[in-house]
Amino acid sequence: MKNSELLSDITKWRLWGRWVFSTFGNAPWNYFSRGSHFKELNLPNDFTGSAVNIDGYVYALESDHGIFERFITDKIQNDISWFDAFFAACESNLAALGELRGKPDLRTLIRLYEDLACNSMIIHFCDKGLEPLIPELGLSAGLSSTDIVHLLVPHKPTIMMQYKSALRDIPDSKIDDLLKEYQWVSSNYLGGVRLTREDIIREKQHGEKEPEIVHFDISTLSERNRQQFLVIQKLIYYRSVNAETLNRSLNWHWEAFDALAAKYGLTRADLEQFAPYEIVDLMDTGNLPQGFDSRAIRNGMSCVDGDFTLYYGPALDEMLKVFEQRVDTKEKTVSGRIAFKGKVRGIVRIIQQIQDLQKISEGDIIIANETMPEYIVGMKKAAAFVTNQGGITSHAAIVAREMSKPCIIGTRVATKVFKDGDLVEVDAEKGVVSLLSNK
Hints:
It contains 18 helices and 15 strands. With about 450 residues, it is α+β, with helices and mostly antiparallel strands. The strands form 3 sheets. The protein has an 8-stranded mixed β-sheet. It has a 5-stranded antiparallel β-sheet with strand order 1-3-2-6-7. The radius of gyration is 21 Å and the shape is globular. The N and C termini lie far apart (about 45 Å).
């Protein structure tokens, strides 16, 4: 089927959720099939990695989901060594990014970013493919549903977990040292703000004692089951650490991005509307991308068999006719998968970006496309989390289990059905969020 025909047939695509970021933030995840690891990991030959992101609505091919689910199910049951190779690729990428500290090398950074996006998208596919198998693996290991919940944690502390631990115990005399390592935690891609000393002091003063986290002792499982659940724990770990390392590495290079932008009469915010490879083109040729003047925050893109296309303006409007999710405004409920059980009522706060966290008061309900490590302060205040997308390795699921807060993931459209100020009930016993009253 030709690309144009495929991109006009919504039945060939499965909605993943919404990822509302700039072109810089969205593009590498869309063309992840062009990452160097895509061909090195012995993925199925018929797995294309095709993807579409139209104004934040993210789709992958239905056929790819089926192909990858069969592939990854076979690997976790019969060939754990495949995961060893994949995790080695993730670790190599993270190490290379870590070596860029103090080296303003935008070319290398962008290449590593594109490879990291490839690795992370494979984790997303693993998440989707393995999720239906988790109960079966747990049953074969003699685990209860509660045991499984306590197993679905990173196999070791993520970077943000290390930050929270350091923040709890650090004396005032060491705050500047902590700041040097974690100034990036409130940034996102090329935007946001850097953490300040005052931010750390304030968070330390207002920090609450972390709840005791119950972890199932994986060493008590049989060797086979231990290896299988260790794979899942590592997928959870690398999903978080990939995102944390990327934001940290990009933050280290903000001054280099500022200098490049200024050279051409631009700002770092302008570079957010470039795909990463277009920034390399700018460095090579000094030319702005074609049609850059007409670009806006709203964007679209597709990658089919490695053919990547950006959409803005009228072209984006045409793609929206096929891919925009139209939600019945009279709808009063959404459903999704339960990440942690519980039932609460609260006021909705729609979180699309870091600045939205200021809206959250104690007991509110966070509804977001997905949560990210830098959302953690707001998540501590919230009574429950609801996301458009997510699975067993998602940040919201992990934090919900750590904080013992009700969480429903994978609703796809919760951010469109509800609005700020709505009173809702999150029933994470049934996997349903219901509108009780409008703002």
